[in-house]
Amino acid sequence: MYLKWNEKIITDFSDKNINSLYNEGYVFTRLGKGIMDQTRSLRINLSKFKLSSENRRVLKKIEGLNLNIEAIPYTKYDWQIGKMAKDFYDKKFGAGVFTANKIKELLTDKEKSNFNNLFIYNLGENNIAGYTICFADNKIVHYSYPFYILNSKFQIPNSMGMGMMIMAIAAAKQNNMQYIYLGSAQRPTDIYKLQFAGLEWFDGEKWNDDMKELKEQIKSRGMARDPDFTAGQNKRIKYL
Known about the structure:
Elements: E1 6-9, H1 15-23, E2 26-28, E3 35-38, E4 41-45, H2 53-61, E5 66-71, H3 79-93, H4 100-108, E6 117-122, E7 128-136, E8 140-148, H5 159-174, E9 179-184, E10 199-202, E11 207-208, H6 211-220, H7 227-232, E12 238-239
Parallel strand pairs: 1-12, 8-9
Antiparallel strand pairs: 1-3, 2-3, 4-9, 4-10, 5-6, 6-7, 7-8, 10-11
Helix pairs in contact: 2-5, 3-4
């Protein structure tokens, strides 16, 4: 189950409206076109971000990996991408969490997908190591739904997934973005996202940079016991 305080379905896809909603803790989901959830969102203020020594250590482990960005709908989609994603999510999170058909839909059907950028991580044109499905405009990037080959040469504990994220953050800063959103912080396993300079989290009312408070929240209570999660289930969907 996914922590959310509210849900909206938008019809105004202007950058101004989307940026405003992300600033209120909403993020695009894979559930359908225009569906956004308000959650304990994480973002990096890129004006405050700089690589730490640990970030550099991770990047050293994946040296040789390149990042290319393609538009969604992705015209070069093939079944192997869906299989890579399904294998990854089956292994990491359990069977049925993410289907190959859903990946294909997100990457090829603009009437059903909220995402517009595919980050492609490769060791050369014909040697793909992983992907991340993202939303981006001229101010923000939403880094979401990463997956990669589990037997990649970079599959040292934590290095591949973290390396992909760090590369995306660095690229967003290099391209003068204001924020990169990293999903949500809900479970103890999300602690790995909290290491970055400039990180902020949405606490239900405002953006907060107190990492100690956030760590205590996600360590001390499982999502199913979270009163914020329970309260959020009764809020009505708003159509904008």
